[in-house]
Amino acid sequence: MKKLAYIIIILTGLCKYAHGQTNAGTNLFFVGYQVAIPSSNGDYLSATSWAGFNFDYRYTIKPNITVGIGTSFNSFSQYFPKQTYQKPDGSGAVTSDMVRHIYTAPITASIHYYLEGGMLKPYVGIGIGTEYSEQDAYFNIYQVYSKNWGFVVKPEVGVLGKFSRDMGGFISVAYNYATNSESDFNISHLSQIPITIGLFFTAR
Amino acid sequence: MKKPLFLMMAVAMGFASCLKAPNLDQLSGDFVVSTNRDQAANFSSYKTYYVSDTVANLGGSGSDTVFFDANAQQLVNAVKTNMNARGYTYMKNTFLNHPDLAIKIGVVKVTTTVFYPGWWYGYPGWWYPPYYGGWYPYYYPFSTYYQYSTGTVIVDTYDVKNAAASHKFDVVWNCTSFGAVGSSSSANFTRGVNGINQGYVQSPYFKTN
């Protein structure tokens, strides 16, 4: 957390070009490193994904409003020590340790609104789209595997600051709720809190 | 404007194709142990059992054989120890003493050969040919193969007590332990013994009282 604070301070220090107005017709390209915290995946897993990426394209329709498309990738993985799983009908049980894994890739259409700011421009946005997900359980040399698509909604808040005329940095926090479900793994939906830090580039 | 968007898509696809594989180093390699029970069976109604001192070697290449060496005796003894601990009495001979339960142990070892024809076409995660970016996926220019072996230990428990009345031997309890095995047969049989022990641990209902 401390590291994150330093990064924000450094970014803030670099934001000497923040006053520049973004005009309608500008294209913005966002590339970010993403950490995602699962907020509820049933009891399937609770480990944070430290290997996520985020890509966003936004088009300025008004000086303070953009529409765009975005996607991100996250891999959640957690080891579960040996335990016994009862068959639902009580006729048997299976014992093993396992590694559970979830891969998520939401693809959303989004709209963002930018507040007036000095050095930094805070923004709020919402994305709606679809999420592709894979859920796996690995045990011994075996794998149980499921993949599915769901509907996703992703409200987001963030802040961006420009380093130069056509480049800047951003940090954002979102809530990513997807309807992907898998009854065998007792997953009714997938939700996560992605925190993204990265760079953006502008082009006319 | 088109160029950065295209570049971004290429980067995105690049990341998607090298989807982070989960770290499986922590997996113990112990057998997966699955048990099944006959829910109609009353386990406390049985008092005595018989277990064959040979282990059936099923599957693999050639005819089925039996094991009766020291390794096989480890499996037999594991069953005896657990059955005695649950209050059942061992009877030496099936037919003369009419035990209530008869137990048969079987093992299966299967070696699987995986063959790559030398080109990753169709291998999941790769597109061929990649029309964007102008690079080709990494591949082995020659064919290659590897082998792995899996082992299974099966403990079937038959109801002898009610066999005359029902005209069949019902399996009242089954324990199947399975997973990858190595080249050391003593280590493999140890996996089997651990599997049998775990099978009883996860079946607390299997006792005389």
Strand and helix layout:
The complex is a heterodimer of chains A (204) and B (209).
Chain A: H1 2-14, E1 27-40, E2 49-62, E3 65-86, E4 92-114, E5 121-139, E6 142-164, E7 167-174, E8 176-178, E9 190-203
Antiparallel strand pairs in A: 1-2, 1-9, 2-3, 3-4, 4-5, 5-6, 6-7, 6-8, 7-9, 8-9
Chain B: H1 2-17, E1 32-37, E2 48-58, E3 65-67, H2 70-85, E4 89-90, H3 94-97, E5 101-116, E6 144-159, H4 163-166, E7 170-181, H5 185-201
Parallel strand pairs in B: 2-4, 2-5
Antiparallel strand pairs in B: 1-7, 2-3, 5-6, 6-7
Helix pairs in contact in B: 2-5
Explain what this protein looks like in three dimensions.
The complex is a heterodimer of chains A (about 200) and B (about 210). Chain A has about 200 residues and is mostly beta strands. Chain A contains 1 helix and 9 strands. Chain A has one helix at about 1-15; strands spanning about 25-40, 50-60, 65-85, 90-115, 120-140, 140-165, 165-175, 175-180, 190-204. In chain A, strands 1, 2, 3, 4, 5, 6, 7, 8 and 9 form a 9-stranded antiparallel sheet that branches. Chain A is elongated and about 65 Å long. The relative contact order of chain A is 0.23. The model of chain A is unreliable at about 15-20 (pLDDT under 50). Chain B is of the alpha/beta class and about 210 residues long. Chain B has helices at about 1-15, 70-85, 95, 165, 185-200; strands at about 30-35, 50-60, 65, 90, 100-115, 145-160, 170-180. In chain B, strand 2 and strand 3 form a beta hairpin. The longest helix of chain B has 17 residues, at about 185-200. Chain B is globular, with a radius of gyration of 25 Å. Mean pLDDT of chain B is about 80; it is low at about 120-140. The interface between A and B is large, with 37 and 35 residues.
